[in-house]
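Hey, resending since the last one bounced:
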Amino acid sequence: ALALVDPALTDGTPRAVTLASGLDAVTQVIEPYVSRKANRMTDALCREAILPGLKALVRLMEAEDAGARDDLAWTSLCGGLALANAGLGAVHGLAGVIGGAAPSAPHGAVCGALLGPILQANELAAGGERLAEVRGWIAETLGCGAAEAPGALAVWAKENGLPGLGAMGVAEAELEEIAEAAGASSSMKGNPVDLPVETLVAAMRAAF
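The structure tokens again:
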């Protein structure tokens, strides 16, 4: 009935938890924004939350910052509202199945590891203005070229301690089975384009 979002409750959260949960929060505004179910309300929420969320997460990897905690909590709140009204995408479609296949894998870390490879897969399969905007926001945050942004985000996350899927207990032999199961998930229905099993497997391999 009621959700209270108090950024101060996250002050001092361990770095690894901040990174994983922050990447999940950012994913939860990116996916509804590029979703095939996006609408004017979710656009209004996501457009003003993606870039501040990215910049806040980068700041928090450098030092504790109360303002960045506020921004990331706002991004998280916007993501909750947006995903409830526009759905998510392939990152969460895969992450839900991975959570069952590798129960010790933290959900946020799984999403963070998949975000860059799935953005690249969607770009190759569909392209479009919204994915280009997301690349631009990532590039602005990381100081890289827009074309390299998804890959740069994956590298940045690893450099800041995000583990790969293999280190989180995901078995490479199960990737095809995970991809097939994810194809039937509700989250996958929001992805901007249908991605075949082989593309999903390649994205997970890139996240290893």
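Residues 66-86 form the longest helix (21 residues).

Sorry for the duplicate.
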